[in-house]
Amino acid sequence: MDILDILDRLVAFPSVVGRPNADIVAWIAAHARACGARVVHLPGPEGDRANLLISIGPAGAPGHVLSGHMDVVPAEEPGWQADPFRLRREAGRLIGRGTTDMKGFLAAALSCLPELAARPLTAPVHLAFSYDEEAGCRGVPHLIARLPDLIAPPLGVIVGEPSGMRAILAHKGKAAAQARVTGLPGHSSRPDLARNAIHGLSRVLAAAVDASAALERGPQDATFAPAWSTLQVGMIGGGQAVNVIPDQASLTLEARAIWGVDPAGLLAPVRAALEALAAEGYGVAWQPISAYPPLRLPPDAPLATRLARLTGAPPLGAVSYGTEAGLYQAAGHDAIICGPGDIARAHTPEEFITEAELHRCRGMILRLAEPC
Question: Which residues are bridge partners to 186 per DSSP?
Fold first, then answer.
């Protein structure tokens, strides 16, 4: 199968984050085995999702890992002009959910397997495909934990998130959580007999707003935009009618941290404000959702200089979005970001990638497998 056929098949799997992924896992595994690759199926603790590790080349020798995720965000935006899970080719664009983020990279890597199998490789190439990246990199930690048992220490990990095929050295870390407040319900005419959960939550929200403003005056790193760590509330809910005192309220928030700052630690003032409500009789609950560390690879690291040669351009210093690369680095593996497409197209209706971008990525992977 050529790269476009592979992308067509991948897009057709509605592998939305948080859902079972057996279908796409089975297809990729079968394709890889048919190309002569070794495949390890790595079920996650959820029981209905799995990671894949695909290897080609000499077992036991150090090689590079190409990391990508099989899940995509939902495709419920009204701007889609046709079925988002059916690849369309219009005006040079390959349109479909996940084409850029990041099934285009998966297709490029999978399309290389037959050529790699025909070469006398001196170093293996591994494809590490994960699940639930879009929920905060939930699947890949289980894959990373198994790597020491499955392959030799990698020469480096290339995370193929869309970067215009420009290598990226650093990204921010992230932590997300939900704060829930429980009060006492009642009729709005007698607030003295109830306890308003939204009113209680308002103090948690105020703490989040204050913490966000304080971060702008905190540590700075000019390689990022913005140069400081950030915190924001993305979702809030509670109540059922204006004349009913709400007994439930919640907010969901995230923090993104520059290098050297613990993202989970940035949420501490908000959690403290939540827990202080317990003294007033509120029920409180704090639920971590996801977390991954920042990434920073030195520009003179062998992996960075190798990618500069392969792409023909010096790596970019940093981006503010996050990837699985920080988790690989935290596990002791040099990691870098480099993949086809533009991040601005990700998570948007009519998401697309171009054939030229796919072939540029494919060429990089084939050159990566050549002896240094």
Answer: 245
Question: DSSP 3-state assignment of 4?
Answer: helix
How far apart CA 87 and CA 5 sit, in angstroms, is: 10
Q: Please, where are the H alpha helices in 104-215?
A: 104-111, 113-117, 140-150, 197-215
Considering the segment(s) 3-170+295-368 as one domain, its CATH architecture is 3-Layer(aba) Sandwich (3.40)
Residues 65 and 336 sit within 8 Å (Cβ to Cβ):
no
pTM: 0.92
Rounded to an integer, what distance in angstroms lies between the CA atom of residue 346 and that of residue 73? 9
- Right CATH number for 173-292 from 3.30.70.360, 3.20.20.70, 3.40.50.620, 3.40.50.1820? 3.30.70.360
| pLDDT tens string 252-284 | 999 999 999 999 999 999 999 999 999 999 999
Cα–Cα–Cα angle for 343, 53, 72, rounded to 5 degrees: 30
Q: Are 228 and 172 in contact (CB under 8 A)?
A: no
Backbone angles phi, psi at 31, to 5 degrees: -60, -45
Q: How many CB atoms lie within 10 A of CB 144?
A: 23
